[in-house]
Amino acid sequence: MAVLMLARATFPPAPTSSTAARRFVVDRLVEWGAGTFTDDAAVMVSELVSNVVAHAGTDAEVEARFDDGLLHVTVSDRSSELPVGLAAIPLDAPPDASHGRGLLILAALADAWDVEQTADGKAVWFEIGGRGPRPG
């Protein structure tokens, strides 16, 4: 029987928060014996928390759940402004552009992801893993 692993942390709207959130999630995954997810999860968490700092300007709440081989991470903020959809992101952005690729990265790395309006802001979540073998 699988055991649900759950961890939550809140990070301030500061330049160091994406690094701290990435470290938080990677450390939990290693503790939970889910080290195969660390690289992709670290990139996605870092992107999402960076977006909260840059665009929402509120605390970023990070929740990581690992259950039966499935990692589900949610990053929430207090801004009701939803991110720009994938269709509006220019695919011809210069390679040295400093922003504009967060959702593209999620779409490329996550097995599933979405954005949801919440009562006090929004939440962006992603999943990797599951019951079958991990792609790639």
Written account of the structure:
The structure is a single chain. This protein is α+β, with helices and mostly antiparallel strands and 136 residues long. It has one domain (5-88, 96-129): Heat Shock Protein 90 (2-Layer Sandwich). Helix content is 31%, strand content 29%. The chain contains 3 helices and 5 strands. It has helices spanning 17-31, 38-56, 102-109; strands at 5-11, 60-67, 70-77, 112-118, 121-129. It has a 5-stranded antiparallel sheet, with helices on one face. Strand 2 and strand 3 (70-77) form a beta hairpin. Helix 1 packs antiparallel against helix 2 and helix 2 (38-56) packs antiparallel against helix 3. It is globular and about 35 Å long.
Secondary-structure element pattern, one letter each = EHHEEHEE
Fraction of residues in H or I helices:
25-40%
CATH class: Alpha Beta
Strand content: 25-35%
Counted beta strands: 5
CATH superfamily: Histidine kinase-like ATPase, C-terminal domain
Layout of secondary structure:
Elements: E1 5-11, H1 17-31, H2 38-56, E2 60-67, E3 70-77, H3 102-109, E4 112-118, E5 121-129
Antiparallel strand pairs: 1-2, 2-3, 3-5, 4-5
Helix pairs in contact: 1-2, 2-3
Short description:
The chain is of the alpha+beta class and 136 residues long.
Q: Which terms summarize this structure?
A:
136 residues, alpha+beta, Heat Shock Protein 90, five-stranded antiparallel sheet, 3 helices, globular, disordered C terminus
